[in-house]
């Protein structure tokens, strides 16, 4: 398993108005930059924890997330991923897109989100 270089040319998140855009996160240990393990569960849990840590910098959590983009390395991971993902979100669920593609650093999953500062209803 590989690790991410220390400096990459992007921010972990950016804010426009009340919207927080979180860059794609993977199952990387935030201290070492190494992939946390070979399983989808290990990588997804760490990915979600990484996203939560970024959201918390703006006093947000998963209830503020309105859009999720998911990138899976293989279509066969979809069912297992949904079981893990369901631990983090409740109805009404955020809008979501899932794409299958090749990912950097031997990752099985990468996720980016858009969150809103206010938690008003639609």
Automatic annotation (TrEMBL):
Matching InterPro entries: RutC-like_sf, YjgF/YER057c/UK114
Pfam families associated with the record: Ribonuc_L-PSP
Superkingdom of this protein's organism: Bacteria
Chain segments annotated as transmembrane: none
Gene Ontology CC entries for this record: cytosol
GO molecular function: deaminase activity
CDD domains, per database record: YjgF_YER057c_UK114_family
PANTHER family hit by this protein: 2-IMINOBUTANOATE/2-IMINOPROPANOATE DEAMINASE RIDA, 2-IMINOBUTANOATE_2-IMINOPROPANOATE DEAMINASE
Stated name of the protein: Reactive intermediate/imine deaminase
Lineage of the species this protein comes from: Bacteria, Bacillati, Bacillota, Bacilli, Bacillales
